[in-house]
What we know:
This protein has 105 residues and is mostly helical. 64% of the residues lie in helices and 0% in strands.
Amino acid sequence: MNPSKILAALCAHYELPLDKGQKLVPLIRRATEAPEPVKGRILALVNRTLKREAERHKAYLKERDLDERMLGVVAKVVHPWTPPNWLRSWSRDDESGSGEAPRLA
């Protein structure tokens, strides 16, 4: 049994990028060398770990996609907006060259 092939098969099963499971290769290697009862327990642990990682990864991708869509919507609204002079002055150095935002009265 090749640990890398086992990992690749499990990652493919859970639709998880291979790099997300690479840290488990030593554990899988240990499982291949262990007696049968221990081997089964280790592989079950690896399986559960990859399943949880796949769920986290899918949630991350979903959140990232939502963030990108929201950014696109906001950009369409804000794009024609011109910031007021007082706000634009914060983005450039003041007379003293300190780079600090102007003080509000």
